[in-house]
Each structure stands twice: as structure tokens, then as C-alpha cells.
Amino acid sequence: MFTHRHFADALGVLLVLSAAACGDDSATQEDSSSEASTSATGGNGSGSTATGAIGGGGEGGEGDATPLPTLHLAAVPTQSVDVAPMIHARAGHTATLLDDGSVIVIGGEDLGDDRAQLATVERYDPAADTWTEMAPLPEGRLNHSATILVDGTILIVGGGGSNAIGSPSGIDVRTTALLLDPATGAVEAIPGPAEPRHAHLAVRLPSGKVLVAGGADADSILVHAEGAGGDIPFGHPLATAEIYDPKTRTFAPTGSMSEAHSSFTLVGLADGRALVTGGIADSEAAVSSKVSEIFDEASGAFTLTGELDGDDRLHHAATRLADGRALIFGGKKSNVSFLSDLQMFDPVTGVFDRAGRTFSSRTVANVVPTVDGGAVVLGGLSCSFNGCDNPVETFLVAAGGGTSDGPDLLHGRASASATVLLDGSILVAGGYASSSVAFVERLAP
User: What is the pLDDT of residues 133-163, one digit of tens each?
Assistant: First the structure.
């Protein structure tokens, strides 16, 4: 179902500018993750993010011995080396690290194929430096989340199409969830969240359940963006959240956020809580957010915490650091300003402090925690009124703040996955430059 609205000029210009680096039919993806999400690696992500490196460490709450996801810490990199490319070019995918050290890459999109949601799944073996194609998903998934459960299966939730400028469109939103068994490659469809969503984020909680929060819905609105080819569809940002219970294999609503969050970040904290930061609450308002909220599974509620120290933002990147703080990097304001600042969140005080900046502003970059208490910033899209590019420079963030130069990537790209492997190297896979790419490299000490 479509309704028609007029899109504010400032946000329309912003999104068109973001797409310029990739040609007429490409743009930025959500950061993950977590993982993203980590999803998580990524940022995305955003990225999408989708690394499996984001999450808590240690045990769950009192009387609950369920372990939180391990926070995988990268060795401080000094070089980047090419490794075997993926079988399929893709951007906005998820990448999940398994206990055996292999990585499963799921879905995404091929910008050369009409922004189609990809159903392909492949597995990387770092020891053999090979990719193996696995059984495909029943349907393509983009703007989805992938969360590893306590039993080792991967929960894939939601997904939906992107519009011509790379934002969640509200079209072809997936109503089911999937369980992927890495041991057999089998994929089982199960009922999805009560509210279908895409461009959401997910994190595993102390109980072993999964929080699925925010994103955009399946009620698409037509928005007019000057210079973007006329009216294009957008999904409404969501404030709702749901909990997946692996014992019953069902989703149930939990407390809602104070405002909707899309193009935001979600970081699992060391104490089992989850931090939501920024994003955009209304696709018509052309205003990004500086609101941050914390979810506590014990209460099932989100609580407002300190706001970002400075600019509101969307399409930024985030991760948890070795000492338990969260690092937020870059993104953009909805008035076209691209950001380069680093902000540290202290979960004890609930306060954000600026921790320096990089010399280039970026959106949909990746931030990966390192063993020295800092992080690596890599990839992303950098835009100005003179155009956009995909920088190859990486930055090493010190634990106390400030940056230094890291090794250059061999390939500039945005909306890639960045996964910490068991040897401490960072597997950077896919993403987009002028189109979706299949090349892969490892940042290594």
C-alpha cells in the first residue's frame, strides 16, 4: 500500500548526494551490526552492521549462565592482503563468525541486478582461503539481521527492498524469519515478528533470547525527492521492538523506544543491556536524531540515556570496546553534513564524550574493536559537494581517544562486512564502490 507525501528538500538532496558515488542506482546501506549486529558487521551499520563481533562478554544475569556473544578483538593491523573473492558480488549483507572460525555470509543485494534481494549464502574457510556455496534461502534477504543463537544456529529476521537511493523502501518486506543450521546448511522458515520490518537491528541478550528493534515497516509512502527521479518509496521508521525466544521459536512484543529509530546503531553492552543511538525517526521531517536509549531485559523497557555530545546523526557506525565503553563514529546529519567525530559512551555514567576525529568524514563505515582497547575505522562513503568516493585509508583509534593512520585498504568500499577472525585478522568482504563487489581482503598485524 502506498501513500503519497512530499519529501523535505534537505533530506532529498542528502540522499541523492550519498548515491552519487555509485551511479544512478546505488547508495548507502544501513550499518549492523552489528553488527552488527552486529549483524553486525559493519557497522553498518551499519552496517548493516553484521560482524558477529558486537555483543557482550561473560555470563548472563544472576542465576542465568547463558553466555553473551563473545566480543572478538582484532589485532592492531599493519597490512592488508588480498584473499579469495566471494562467489557472488554483494553489499548490505550479513557476516557471522562461527565457533570453528569460518564465516557465513547471507543475502544482501547486487546493485547490478536491479537492487534485487539476494538469496545466496556462502561460507568462508580462513585456513583453506576458499568460499563454498551453501543452499540458498527460500527468498532473498536485504536489510535483514542475522544473530547466532546459543545452540549455534543463525536467526535471520526480516528484510526488505531498498529504494533508488539505498534507503529501506517498505516494499517486499519479509514476514517470516529463518533458522539456518551451519552444520547441515538446512534453512527452516518460522513465523516472523508481529510487525514485519527491515533495516532493523538485533542483539542476543543474557537469557539467550534476541532483541529485534526499530527499522522500517512495510507501509510504504511515496516521497518526492528533487533530483532523485521523482517519487520514490520509503518505509515508516519504527519505535517498536520484539523479543525472540529460541525455546518457543516465537516473537513477542516488548517495550517500545521513546522515538522511532531507522539508520541507527545497536550495541550489546558487557552487562547484557543494549544501547540504541541516533538514526532518523521520521522520513518526512528531514531531521536526524541524537537520542540514545538503553534496553534492559530485566524490565523489558527502554530508558533514555545521555545524548550524543554534538551532532545528531544517521548511518553512523558503533561497537563495544574492550573496557566496556561503546565507540560511535561518523555518519551524517540529514542536512547533508558528513561527520568525522568519534564519541565514547560510558555505560556507568550514561555520558558521551568526544574522543577526537578522523581527517575524513564518512558514513556506512565499519568500526572494529582491537586488543589494545581501541578500534579500527575502515571503509565507508565520503561525500562533499564536489562528489563522493570510497576512501582506502583506515584509522587506528586509541583507547584514550585520538587517531593515527592505519594500513590502507586494497579496495575502497562501503556497506561491506568486517569480521574479526579467530587469528585476530579482520575479514573485509564485499560492499559497493561503483557497483556491488565480490573482492575480499584481510587486515592483519
Answer: 999 999 999 999 999 999 999 999 999 988 7
Name the pTM for this structure: 0.87
- Nearest-angstrom CA–CA distance, 179 and 439: 27
Q: Extract the C-alpha cell encoding 54.
A: 558486537
Q: How many CB atoms lie within 10 A of CB 287?
A: 16
What is the Cα–Cα distance from 103 to 110, expressed in whole angstroms?
20
Strands (E), 90-205: 94-97, 103-106, 109-110, 116-117, 121-125, 130-133, 145-148, 154-157, 176-180, 187-191, 201-204
| pLDDT, tens digit, 9 for 90 and up, residues 395-420 | 999 999 899 999 999 999 999 999 99
DSSP state of 249: T
Q: Which domains does the chain have, with CATH numbers?
A: 3-444 (2.120.10.80)
Question: Which sign, positive or negative, has the C-alpha torsion 384, 414, 173, 255?
Answer: negative
Cβ(174)–Cβ(198) below 8 Å: yes
Alpha-carbon distance values, 290 to 310, 311, 332 (Å):
8, 7, 11
Nearest Cα to Cα of residue 306 among 326, 291, 287, 324: 291
CA neighbours closer than 13 Å in the CB half-sphere of residue 431: 37
pLDDT digits (tens, 9 = 90+) for 181-237: 999 999 999 999 999 999 999 999 999 999 999 999 998 888 776 555 678 888 899
Q: Which of 168, 165, 229 is nearest to 22 (CA)?
A: 165
